[in-house]
Each structure stands twice: as C-alpha cells, then as structure tokens.
Amino acid sequence: MQKTVVNSWNEWDPLKHVIVGRADDCHIPPEEPALDAKVPEDSDMRGQWGRRPQETIDRANELLDNFASILESRGIRVDRPTPIDHSKPAMTPDFRTESQFGCMPPRDVLLTVGSEMLEATMSYRCRWFEYLNYRPLMQQYFEHDPNFRHESAPKPRLTDADYHPDYLSDKIGVEKRLKWTAEKFFVTTEEEPLFDAADVLRFGRDLVVQHGFTTNLKGIEWLRRHFPDHRVHTVNFPGDPYPIHIDATFTPLRPGLILNNPQRRLPEEQRKMYRDNDWEIVDAAQPAHNTPPPLCYSSTWLSMNVLVLDPKTVCVEKSEVYQAEQMDKLGMEVVEVELRDAYAFGGGLHCCTADVFREGTCEDYFPNMDQSSV
Asked: Where is the active site (predicted)?
C-alpha cells in the first residue's frame, strides 16, 4: 500500500499528493441569503436552480479526469472525493434549502496546514454538508498517517442573523457594491465565525486571509486562535464587488513573487510586510475571455487561478494564453490544462484541488515582520 503522509505548508513547494474534485450530481442551488449576494446581477444563473444538465456534468468530469491524469503522469498521487447525493435538501433546526451544491472545488472546504486538514465552516447553507464528500479520504488518511490531524471548525447555525439584509436586493448595482466592499461592509455579519478554506493562502509561518463575503472577521479570529504558532493577516481587495475567494485575486508563485489581480490590487497600507521582506507583487496578465462560461458564478479572472506544482512549474488553463505567456516570462514551465468547461462547477485549477502533501517544511518567509501588523 502506498504510504500516506499529510503535510503542506505553502502554495508552491513540490506537490506530491493532491485531491482533485468531481462534477458528479452538481446542482445550481436555490436562492438563499449568501448565494443571492454573490451571484452577479446580470448572471444567467439568477432565478435558476436544480441539477446541472448531464452533458455538462459529463464534460466537466472528462476535463477533471484528464487533469488528474496529467498530474499522475508527473508522479503526483491523486485522490478523488466520494460524491454524496447533492439533490437532497440541506436541513438543520435553523434552515432548510432544497438542494446542495457539489464536490468539484475541494479547496473551498479543506485547508491543509502542516499535517492538519481543517474542514471550513462554509457560509452557504447549500454547502453545509459538503465536507461529507471528503470524509472517506479523511478516514483513510487518519488510518494511514499517525501524524495526521483531522479537524473541523465549529459548524455555524447560518440563521438570517448571519447575513446583512441590505444585500438581498437584486438591484444594488456595481457602484454601490464597490462602495460597500471598500467600506468593508459585506453580506456576512459578525454573528458567528465564518470562513471558506479558499480565502486562506499559506506562506509557511504566515496565513493570509481575505475578509469578504465568505469569511468574516470572527472567522479570521477563530483561525488566529486555532493556529497559535502562525501569524494570521487580514487582507481586503476593494476593487472586487463580489469578494468571494482569494485565489482569483492574489496568487503566490514562489518565495518572493505574487500575482495580483490588477482590478483588485492589494491596498498600499497592506503591502508593508511584503515590501519589508523583498516580495514582488506583479499585476496578472489579462484574461483571454471577456465573459465567464454559461451558468458560472466565477469571474473571468479564473485565468490566474493556477496550480503551482513546484517553484518552477505551474498549471495554467489551456485557453488562457496571456497568463501562460506571462508565466513563461517569469521563468515558469507552463503545463497547459483544459478546464474552462468545468469552471461553472466550482472554479479553476486551484479551486478544484486540495493539497495533501508538498515537500518542504514550515519556513518564515517574512523574517522582517513588524509585529504591529500581525
């Protein structure tokens, strides 16, 4: 039996073991407070819900299977989730929503920090039970790796008190949304800790967490207390009217180099820790597409949602030619992966994966740290 070791401290050390999601039984979920705020007002998804068409599920699975094969051909072990029945309602004593979502983006649910895999709270009601798709793998890792720690953050109640009612209108407009996000007024309140794993970037001893629609300040404080040996930093990107996950906005490629979405630049006052430690933040290349695929939540900036295999190698979506060209100029070997037809199922190459093992140890990449910024 292949030895299992769970250990990953950052986004760029050599990847040796990863989870790749599946599109099986993926649903467009019904309306709910968290979802309504996050679906763009001009999206073709508004007012729709139900199981996605089988031909689109089959196509997405074909692409995900091919991606898994590409990784395996490079010596990377790939595990896959065990899909649950996503057509069943998500129901607790506090809420009921008529269907669930899917298991294409494990990055949203699972945060690997060292030998721990942490199940995030999630802030959509339809995603409350999404961790169950990954429980067979968690049980397997627990049995095979004596150092593996399987943790789960406190499940939130997700009552109406968790959401600002101002966001329930479908006619807010982009201008007001940008004003609200600049003021750090998001759909999520501070009623209880909320965070999605995809709002967290790992830099060895430092965790960088986006405060936005899916992660609130109480969630960031929970992470700070849960990882007492780490420095946890809160970031915001005011140019994003739908600040959902950090990995189409801020993408570390290797020690000292980060791509930043030029429409959502990290504010000047939040750049000090990078400047003081000789990190370069460069604008990402423009997306190759003007619009997202049909029935897709995500922005065109999934172009920069790449998977780094090691500090010199990166997976880029095949049609994102400008992003691939930029990676080449930055000295990276580009592995082209076709995935665009799977975007609608939960995101790009980073979203549809979750690290299990990367070589390397926990290092301090920001030794010149102003402690007042922690």
From this structure: 196, 245, 351
Model confidence band, residue 332 (pLDDT cutoffs 50, 70, 90): very high
- In the set 245, 296, 350, 355, the catalytic residue is 245
In 3D space, the residue among 366, 165, 351 whose CA is nearest the CA of residue 273 turns out to be: 366
Phi, psi of 345 (to 5 degrees): -90, 0
Q: What is the pLDDT of residues 313-328, one digit of tens each?
A: 999 999 999 999 999 9
148: tokens are 């593996």
Nearest-angstrom CA–CA distance, 71 and 54: 26
* 164 a catalytic residue: no
CB 79 within 8 A of CB 18: yes
Q: How far apart are CA 96 and CA 13, in angstroms?
A: 41
Q: CA–CA separation, 368 vs 276, rounded Å?
A: 6
**How many C-alpha atoms does 345 have within 13 Å on its Cβ side?**
34
Give the active site residue among 86, 351, 352, 355.
351
Tally the residues of the chain: 374
Hey, how many other C-beta atoms are within 10 angstroms of the C-beta on 51?
A: 14
Q: Which tens digits make up the pLDDT trace of 81-109?
A: 999 999 999 999 999 999 999 999 999 99
- CB contact at 8 A, 201 and 250: yes
C-beta atoms surrounding 91 within 10 Å: 13
CA distance linking residue 79 with residue 353, whole number of Å = 10
Which position has the token pair 């979203």? 351
Q: Nearest to residue 107, comparing CAs of 363, 318, 340, 306?
A: 306
Active site residue 351: yes
CATH code for residues 15-362:
3.75.10.10
The mean of the pLDDT values for the chain is 93
Residue 216, helix vs strand vs coil? coil
Strands 15-20 and 77-79: parallel
Whether pLDDT at 29 is above 70? yes
Please write the tens of the pLDDT for every residue from 238-266.
888 888 899 999 999 999 999 999 999 99
The rounded distance, in Å, linking the Cα atoms of 364 and 295 is 41
pLDDT value at residue 47: 63
The whole-number pLDDT of residue 346 equals 94
